[in-house]
Write a sequence for this structure.
């Protein structure tokens, strides 16, 4: 990300107020606030950075499986593409990205995170789709039209 922390706008973070972090020179075990993740059983997380990292690792494992599932659908979509040019549909790409941005607030995800993650997913999926169809259409180009590298 370019710019400085001062250039961040609230919409880059959340539409909710950001947490107030009191300035202190004291050495604190937990720098600010109380645990803010509440699970369905009523317990909260986290009381240590290790717990936070364990949670992130667990979510990352789930994300990898979901991305694998999505890639399988992307591969399946190629069966319905009749030409090399029909692989990338920019209007559909924009629709998917905007849908993620619009839904982000309802799951308390910063919209900028949804936008950037979905842009990366879409762009890498386009490249993957071209890789799948290239042998089918015997297209000589090695460049992938409209896909960011």
């Amino acid at each position: 990300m370019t710019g400085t922390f001062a250039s961040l706008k609230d919409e880059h973070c959340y539409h909710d107020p950001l947490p107030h972090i009191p300035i202190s020179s004291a050495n604190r075990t937990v720098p600010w606030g109380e645990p803010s993740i509440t699970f369905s059983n009523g317990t909260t997380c986290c009381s240590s950075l290790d717990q936070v990292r364990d949670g992130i690792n667990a979510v990352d494992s789930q994300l990898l499986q979901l991305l694998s599932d999505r890639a399988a659908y992307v591969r399946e979509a190629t069966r319905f593409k009749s030409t090399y040019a029909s692989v990338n549909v920019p209007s559909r790409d924009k629709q998917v990205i905007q849908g993620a941005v619009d839904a982000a607030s309802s799951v308390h995800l910063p919209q900028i995170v949804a936008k950037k993650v979905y842009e990366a997913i879409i762009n890498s999926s386009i490249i993957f789709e071209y890789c799948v169809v290239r042998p089918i259409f015997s297209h000589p180009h090695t460049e992938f039209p409209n896909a960011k590298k």
